[in-house]
């Protein structure tokens, strides 16, 4: 893709997700979510992004399997467009949080978005490491269930069977598509040190370190919230009986 196409795709993505967010404001909303309507729309928009990019990332490798053998140079227009679209989403979400949420509540995600935009930006502008960026987007498969978890909690459905099933699938996909993917990417970066310029290697290494730390913290929070606390509550009920 040429620079003009990258800019057009990214700008179109910003507009698309702004449109999606506006669309959710016109749809019915659970009474429990009305207290924070902005957060409800933001999470629903993020869910749409995860659904699109998660499926798209898998299709990239299915339709162009050669990319898996060379994550640096080999890529298709289809995969390049995916990374450009994701940059647009992260730019949109960054400003959506800046304008609607306190910095003390959003600084972690804002920092995450800046790292992703920087790394993906280097990839689409240089037309290199696109395959590596698509591998990174496989984590969005887990994000589908991660965002669904937030939607269910905001809708006061955290005590239902659907939430429990989603919690287990979320934890399983978290290990497979987040922790394992990040570990594999870190290993790939180390093994291909000689094939990656110093600047790109440094940015990639710092980005991977930040992503890994943030995801380990989030995993511990999920485990404590959805499994350890519920086990503690069940244990107390048994003692009372």
Radius of gyration: 19 Å
Query: Could you give the order of the helices and strands?
Result: HHHHHHHH
- Percent in helix: over 70%
What is the quaternary state of this protein?
single chain
Number of strands: 0
Distance between the termini: 66 Å
Which class do the helix and strand fractions yield? mainly alpha
Task: Round the mean pLDDT to the nearest integer and report it.
Answer: 90
Tell me what portion of residues adopts beta-strand conformation: under 5%
Give a short account of the largest sheet: none
Q: How many helices?
A: 8
Q: Would you identify the regions where 5 or more consecutive residues have pLDDT less than 50?
A: 233-241
Shape: globular
What would the keywords be for this entry?
241 residues; mainly alpha; 8 helices; globular
Give a description of the structure.
This protein has 241 residues and is mostly helical. Helices cover 80% and strands 0% of the residues. α4 runs antiparallel to α8. The radius of gyration is 19 Å and the shape is globular. It starts with a helix and ends with a helix.
Secondary structure layout:
Layout: H1 3-25, H2 37-63, H3 77-100, H4 103-126, H5 130-136, H6 140-154, H7 161-191, H8 198-240
Helix pairs in contact: 1-2, 1-3, 2-3, 2-6, 3-4, 3-5, 4-8, 6-7, 7-8
Summarize the structure.
With 241 residues, the protein is an all-alpha fold.
């Amino acid at each position: 893709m040429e620079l003009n196409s990258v800019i057009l795709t990214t700008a179109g993505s910003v507009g698309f997700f702004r449109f999606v967010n506006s669309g959710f404001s016109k749809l019915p909303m659970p009474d429990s979510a009305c207290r924070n309507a902005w957060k409800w729309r933001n999470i629903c928009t993020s869910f749409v992004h995860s659904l699109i990019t998660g499926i798209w990332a898998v299709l990239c490798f299915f339709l162009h399997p050669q990319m898996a053998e060379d994550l640096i140079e080999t890529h298709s227009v289809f995969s390049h467009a995916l990374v450009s679209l994701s940059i647009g989403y992260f730019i949109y979400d960054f400003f959506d949080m800046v304008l609607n949420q306190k910095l003390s509540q959003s600084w972690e995600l804002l920092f995450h978005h800046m790292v992703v935009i920087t790394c993906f930006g280097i990839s689409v502008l240089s037309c290199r490491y696109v395959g590596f960026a698509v591998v990174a987007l496989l984590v969005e498969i887990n994000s589908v269930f991660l965002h669904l978890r937030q939607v269910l909690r905001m809708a006061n459905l955290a005590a239902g069977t659907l939430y429990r099933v989603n919690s287990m699938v979320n934890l399983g996909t978290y290990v497979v598509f987040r922790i394992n993917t990040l570990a594999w990417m870190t290993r790939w970066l180390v093994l291909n040190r000689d094939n990656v310029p110093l600047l790109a290697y440094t940015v990639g290494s710092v980005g991977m370190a930040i992503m890994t730390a943030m995801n380990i913290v989030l995993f511990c929070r999920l485990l404590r919230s959805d499994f350890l606390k519920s086990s503690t509550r069940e244990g107390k009920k048994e003692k009372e009986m």
